[in-house]
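Supplementary Methods, section 5.1.

A reviewer requested that the exact input to the structure prediction be made available. We therefore reproduce it here, unchanged from the version used in the analyses.
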Amino acid sequence: MFDLTVSLDVTGRRCVVVGGGPEADARVRGLVHAGAEVVVVTPAPSSGIEVAAAEGLVTLQRRGWQPGDLAGAFVAYNTREDDTPVAAIWAESRTHHVLLSTLDDKPRCDFATPAVVRRGDLAITIGTAGRAPALAKRLRQQLQERFGAEYATLVEVIEDARRQVLPREVAFDAWAAKWSQALEDLDGLAALVRAGRGDTARERIVATVGKGGR
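The structure derived from this sequence is encoded token-by-token as follows.
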């Protein structure tokens, strides 16, 4: 079996998390960050979930799962941190056509959530198709050290440079080669941004790519 990795747009969509422990907490934070309409069902919410509910970021149902909780949802998580009926939740997800991820139960998973390093609009994902989540977590820790906060700004710098060199006036292959050359010294560009010299980094990219890629 082959896995296809995709990013789902959950903005404004109902997403249900069944569970209240640290695994649920992590998924709630990710969904809130993505702009989802989050509903958490648990009799024992973590402090993080409590805070999110108090701030109006999530709707908290302080009880165990009940039939109908997945109705209208786009995606759902069953973290199995509460005493939840795994088979019944899976069956309901089939009835309501909800994408479901059940922790440590691959046969009852429509998708696996990758470990993510976020730096502004930059998202670096690490996935193991649900086979080795501890490895994905460890690699995420390493990447968090490797890619600092300056990469969030670097995304904006590159976007500004791209606007300056558009429209493309050469064949796509030539255009791609120019961009590859412009970003070859990625560490150097990041260092400029980190030093507060984002304008210099942008000018360097623009000079390398050239107007229209010429």
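Residues 150-213 form one domain. These observations are discussed further in the main text.
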